[in-house]
Amino acid sequence: MAIRFTTSLTAGLAAILFSSSALAAPINFLNVSYDPTRELYDDFNKSFGTYWQQKTGQEINFRQSHGGSGKQARSVIDGLEADVVTLALASDIDAIVDNTSLIKNKNWQKQFPQNSTPYTSTIVFLVRKGNPKQIKDWGDIVKPGVEIITPNPKTSGGARWNYLAAWAWAKHQKGGNDTTAREFVRQVYQHTKVLDSGARGATTTFVERGIGDVLLAWENEAYLAIREQPDKFEIITPSLSILAEPPVAIVDKNVDKHGTRNLATGYLNYLYSPAGQEIAAKNFYRPRNAQVLAKYKNVFRPLKLITIDKEFGGWRKTQKAHFDNNGVFDQIVAQNSGKQ
Fold it and tell me: At residue 221, does pLDDT exceed 90?
């Protein structure tokens, strides 16, 4: 009888120890993001991980995946088990919604504040020190002899923002319309030396490989290049650009499978917290929090911005017209290559 009791007690203690060990084991958590957010989420994950462990006792094993936003969306569609997606534009998350059952709510942008965009950015020009080609606005980038670096809109979210900012500028010129805007954008791609698959690849081509005279860049990418090599580059802010709103979403089917729904909700909500907004600002993303934005007024100067909704009718309409197969971008590429 005593032997049985000892055996049962030992088994019970082992079960408790095993259970405690399982509870203490770090939980895996995957954020699938776009190309230039590597530094942002390195900093954010450290801050959120400390906050979450203090709040819940749960340790997180963060995993990050970065690449061109369109390619990242395709990876999730094809089976990459993201807990959350933090992509460059709404149409990439719409693609996940439209092609899978991974995100249950078709109105996913209503799940978090500001249409589920906790920070914003815009498009600027990065030029070499001294601005040797005297690039001051959009019209200057298609002058003879100017070589442009911008990513491929078929795979990169940042590239689509670049394209639309250029289109909008041309349309807003005297006598501008969609026909003149299309011709200007055609010239932009005629002057483009390299079409990388993502924004970070384009930055590498311009900054490290020394190719091109001007990089059409996310504002945060341009500032990062200046921070790392202040004596080599300058930022030129065009007269008109676009309000880039990179959105976030929970991937419902995956978080339910992984048991990470509460974690995912907390993670994305933390982006809107004062701490999260401060981290965004320090990584050169424009915070939504007005108080945090005011602290960085010398970095984030006011500029004239158009929006995707007012200028182009929203992302669903724009994606179909400009970037889907046989859309305007494909037609421009064919025209420039002499195939149309």
Answer: yes
80 and 103 co-located in one domain: yes
Query: How far is the CA of 327 from the CAs of 89, 153, 212, 289, 331, in angstroms?
Result: 18, 11, 27, 37, 6
CB atoms within 10 A of CB 119: 29
pLDDT tens-digit series, residues 184-196: 999 999 999 999 9
Instruction: Spell out the alpha helix ranges (H) of 126-239.
Output: 157-171, 178-190, 199-207, 219-228
Backbone angles phi, psi at 155, to 5 degrees: -125, -20
* Residue 302 domain-assigned (yes or no): no
Are 94 and 197 found together in one domain? Answer: no
- Does residue 197 contact residue 111 with C-beta atoms inside 8 Å? no
Residues 189 and 46 in one domain: no
CB 191 within 8 A of CB 133: no
Q: Supply angle C-alpha 282, 294, 272, rounded to 5.
A: 60
Q: What tens digit of pLDDT does each residue of 73-128 get? A: 999 999 999 999 999 999 999 999 999 999 999 999 999 999 999 999 999 999 99
114: tokens are: 């500001």
